[in-house]
Amino acid sequence: MQKIQNLIRCYKPLDFNSIDENLLEEFPILKKWQEDELFMSFVESTKENYSIFRCSYDSSPKFYLIPNFLFNYLEKILEANKNLGFSFGIDEIQERKILFYSLRYDIQTKDILLSENQVFLKKEKSTFVESKIEERKFIILKENNECVFKIYKKWKRENGKSIKQFNTKTFKTKECDYLFDNEILRNCFLQRIHTPILKDLNLLPTFLLSYLKVDFNLLKESHTIQDFVESALNLKIPFNLNKLDLFTALSFGIFLQFIEEKEQNKFYQFVLSKDCPKIKSDEAFFERTCDIFYKKKKFKVLNLYYYLLKTIQLRGEEYKYYNNEFILKDYTKLIYETKSKINFKIQSPQRISREHNALIDKLNASKIPKSKKLKIHQSFIHLKLPKNFKLLKTERELFLQGEKQNNCVYMRKDKVNRGTSAIYHLDYQGDYTLEISKKKEKFILYEMKGKHNVEPTEEIYSYVQKELERINANLKSLEYQK
What we know:
The protein is an alpha+beta fold.
């Protein structure tokens, strides 16, 4: 590493546990950093994978966290190309996506500021290429265990100077999926957990921590997996969740809403058994998770489909096809969307098909709007049309008309609510949907369609036009009499 450090011009390694007295004299603020428990705790959390460097060409102290594996990479590059004149420069342009971080600390607010950068290996006098980069800044806040994320996107031109900045996004969060998605943030926040649940977190694959869509403070205050899951779901669970890993326990707690009470113990015994799919330490596991809304909060959990593969025993030659593909997976998805209970008694592909289709009907029915009244203008309500003209007065009636006639009349809802038109169902030599508008105190037929948007016959069209002409003539007569 020493060979590489000598090649990093203007950047010197720094150990905060033993800072040179001359440097402390030049920058007294470092003494305060060194004495600050929070900051030194953060430094300690980075030691395993990162080294701290000081940039010495500036009048103010600048520090960088550089991954240790980078030095091994540079050794190989420089050794293999020692005759080509390569040097190591630190720049924001991405040539190879190896991250390092600039580091600042606010001694007053106790906030740690990290700015994500990238390493650029270049040959002397080489030109920069045009590229688009993303830069992220993290501010680790002491209060409430939160972190501020600032994301910038920039363009670079040939001389390496930024010519455009766009899509700046800033947000503050204390959700684990954000705090654990970055190695340095993850190590920093895990070090703030002092309860036994830390041992359970360390048993999870690292990538899985970023799937925990929960408040970090909830995790920090929990002593056991049981405490954590029951607090996250605001639910008392009558099973010992401490026998499960944390992620499976959270998934199990959420799955209880999809399982009949009399089946829940069987399901718990299955989760404990060797037949239950176990968490794997690779990111292909991502395919085994899904997003589920529980009490208006979205959780990422194990996909119930992989449990059903073992618990639902299908008979017949079609078992393998249905076991691994399509309809069982769709059935599971429909269970989530309709918040239905699982039928563990299914034993044939045909039965799954029937259950699947029943859930589709239930899902479609749930999309039907409630009987909210449309804001129809009074002039349409008082139209004296024949009884075979039915005015659609609610959103539900409008939606069902579209379903029945297979058209998109429900999309006219906003137009009706503005008072510019009204929708009618006409029963005359068949079923028709028609829209009547008002133009210069006259009612006109704006559109009329049959089922599947079939055009009406000339006779039907003429019938409607005559009725509207009669109404308009009566209105004109009444206006004249006034």
